[in-house]
From TrEMBL:
PROSITE patterns: N6_MTASE (PS00092). Pfam families: Cons_hypoth95. This is 16S rRNA (Guanine(966)-N(2))-methyltransferase RsmD. Keywords: Methyltransferase, Transferase. It is an enzyme of class 2 (transferase).
Length: 179
């Protein structure tokens, strides 16, 4: 795996071996950013289930100013630290070693871009988006990008957000919510 585009483009990303995380492939990551950007002029990104950190690092590579990554798995945290070090701009990243639900109570917003890619067995997107809205952690022009199994049907609206775009890539579905 590698960073697809931007200032860190083509740099390699480490991933965790095994089935505890499902890193978003280069192809899908590139397609996601083509859907939502592909480039940004500043802003903050939140990745609630960071895995290898690839999505948040790609967002900063493409112009986001800072990223907050949430990951509870210790082995994945070590991979994220290595991937952040590869950017040579560690000050743009904050890794919180905790569960996504715990993290919501300690975060301060607003976030302009949010990635929700929970383990397929643990679909809690509706609850997380609702809580993000209730805690006022989302910017007015926010994009919330959800990656699920293609069979998962997310609601048309969650809290004050509605589906803007939705695409299927292989076994994955990407759903983008906006205000």
């Amino acid at each position: 795996m590698r960073i697809v585009s931007g200032k860190y483009g083509a740099r390699p990303l480490k991933t965790l071996a095994g089935k505890t995380t499902r890193p978003t492939s280069d192809k899908v990551r590139g397609a996601v950013f083509n859907m939502i950007g592909p480039y940004f002029e500043g802003g903050r990104v939140l990745d609630l289930y960071a895995g290898s950190g690839g999505l948040a690092i790609e967002a900063v590579s493409r112009g986001m100013e800072e990223a907050v990554l949430i990951e509870r798995d210790r082995k994945a945290q070590a991979i994220i630290r290595d991937n952040i070090a590869m950017t040579k701009e560690a000050d743009k990243f904050q890794l919180l070693a905790m569960d996504a639900r715990q993290a919501l109570s300690s975060l301060t917003g607003p976030f302009d871009l949010v990635f929700l890619d929970p383990p397929y067995a643990d679909q809690e997107i509706v609850a997380m988006v609702t809580e993000l809205c209730q805690r006022q952690l989302l910017a007015e022009e926010v994009m919330v990008v959800c990656e699920t199994d293609k069979a998962v049907q997310l609601p048309e609206e969650i809290a004050e957000l509605g589906i803007w775009k939705e695409k299927i890539y292989g076994i994955s579905k990407v759903t983008v919510y906006v205000r």
